[in-house]
Specification:
The chain is α+β, with helices and mostly antiparallel strands. It has three helices and two strands. The two termini are 24 Å apart.
């Protein structure tokens, strides 16, 4: 998966690890944050033929949400 992310200018900022919810009721089992240069790169990666087989595998093996957020 790393090669497909890097191809679109992305890099992992957070990939699992211990986490604590300080406010609210959100209790994720795992948190992954990937930084891309812009929204177009993130969408390009997610919709790419490179990532498609990995996306299918991830969706078959796990349950989760994926969001894209613009900002710094």
């Amino acid at each position: 998966m790393l090669a497909t992310i890097e191809k679109y200018g992305g890099r992992f900022l957070v990939r699992g690890g211990a986490h604590t919810t300080l406010e609210g009721k959100w209790r994720p089992g795992r948190v992954v944050i990937i930084e891309f240069p812009d929204m177009a790169a993130a969408k390009g990666w997610h919709g790419s033929k490179d990532y498609a087989p990995l996306l299918k595998l991830r969706q078959t093996a796990s349950e989760g949400s994926l969001i894209a957020v613009e900002g710094v």
